[in-house]
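QUALITY CONTROL LOG
STEP: pairwise intake check
CHECKER ROLE: data steward
CRITERIA: each record must contain a sequence immediately followed by its structure tokens, with no blank fields

ENTRY 1 OF 2
RESULT FIELD BELOW
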Amino acid sequence: MNHVFVIAEAGVNHNGSVEIAKQLIDVAAQAGADAVKFQTFRAENMVCRTAAKAAYQIDSTGESETQYAMLKKLELTRQIHEELMEYCKEKNILFLSTPFDVPSVRLLADLGMRIWKVPSGEITNLPYLRHIGKYHQKVILSTGMSSMDEVKAAVAVLRENGTQDITLLHCNTQYPTPVPDVNLLAMVSMGKELGLPAGYSDHTQGIEIPIAATALGAVVIEKHFTLDRNMEGPDHRASLEPDELRRMVEGIRKTEQALGDGVKRLSESEKGNVSVARKSIVAAESIRAGEYFTEENLSAKRPGTGISPMLWDEIIGRKADRDYKVDEMILI
């Protein structure tokens, strides 16, 4: 029997506190998870300062601050990463973290991380995927908000840059995900069509759907968890608490509804997240009319309302037809 690799997703549920992060590691280790995963990013590299929050983030944290301000409070320093990695060793659980920008990829590589988790929002970020691929290490690729063609394109970029050990994670990025939108059979069809192992990253409420995914052959299960769903922060409400084991019978009923039709598609519930979670090509610095677009003066940042970073190669080498300010979307 194959061992299902269970990732306990702490994410940003540490709320910026090292002590809460360590308590989350304790919970994950005691639960028997194989890995506990955090998120590594710098807000200024991840999102434009005026980018709006997703609807679920507004529901959890209000509208008084931008997505940038919310994320800025949830960054982890290099020192904190080192402290948490050491604590994971003490607790005999693997430390993982999802990088959301290229500098964060470099930081995690420097710290010795050898399994890369690519989040759904970066699946159309060509320079990011190339950088991950060049490490030639295991990649776990989340595929929320994606069509089958987009998944194939991302896998192709990773392979072209030297990565062959790829596991796909079917995912719906809505927090919490409506059960009819889970479409677990897409996990099966996606794995078969691409000839790759497949698993499931879950954002539903409760534990029933990950169990159903395991029954369908998932090799990786990823699930958000928290100390208390009533804590302040964007992801707590859709995270798991220990007492949900008692909801097993209800989970059987939910599993019947969640099987889906096996077609990988963007669901109605997550359409509003595409422009929030994906990125556009923007100016990384001031650019004057007539200057050439280069790898150095361009960046990929949220929101995804402009030119997709998958068109990066078509933009590099062109001349700017006007002046651009920092973070301004490139137009052609």
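ENTRY 2 OF 2
RESULT FIELD BELOW
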Amino acid sequence: MLLKELFYFRKSDRSVLIVLCMTALIAILLILGFGGGMNTTTLTAEDSIRLSETSYSQHEYSTQEPYGQLSARQAERFPFDPNTADSTQLLRLGLQPWQVRNIYKYRAKGGVYRQPSDFARLYGLTRKQYRELEPLIRISDEYLPAASLVSERTAAVRDTLRYTAKIGPTEHVDLNRADTTLLKRVPGIGSYFARSIVRYRDRLGGFYSVEQLREIEDFPVAALSFFTLGNAQLRKLDLNRLTLNQLKQHPYINFYMARDIIDYRRLKGPLHSLNDLHLLRDFPPDVIRRLEPYVTFSEKEAK
């Protein structure tokens, strides 16, 4: 009887109790519904390190992705001057954008590449890359120390004065056969210009005109009258057989001209004359006339 009285509630008390129970139930449901996403897990030191590495690798991938795309491209090979090459040319050579930025920063601070070995100091450049690029580096004379120019000119003048046995006004020297010793007997020609003549003659494959000596920088024009042309045969370039690298070795053919010749052979077959190229931008009439004595065309293109 006492137990029954203990659990007996009046009607008003039962209503209050029911309301409290309902409120508690709603509160529990709300906590379970909205608080489920706030569960926390205690991370160990190993978990923290792994999470940090994952975050860094994702960031690195997002920032390096364009570089990866560039490195997947086929690097081109053509002569370039690291003092004047623009970003497009440097990227085509296979350098990474951050390496190109370093080159620009170096040049902006007054840095100059005076010899090919200076380019080897580029940060991130591997030995393999440098060995491939070194033969293509062309440092313009404008970036050499001015003292070297003065010393060369002084040596040339002194050398000219030292060789007193000069030829007379009615004597001439065969431009295609003379060696440096004979060339130095020409008035105004010393060791410097004698070596320059021989080097340029070897690169050209021989002179077909005395006026070509004007293409040597600062050549003494007064000496032109002492030269004559013998019957030496010019070395010919077979435009249907030579490779791009072989073609662009000639002073009158640059990389773009050599590429045009290769493209023409690939698309249209062997060339028959330079007039086949006259519609191309790099082959205006004056270039064709200058190059014509040095070229020949085989009947069949080499495979």
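INTAKE CHECK: passed for both entries
DESCRIPTIVE NOTE, ENTRY 2: The first helix runs from residue 2 to 6.
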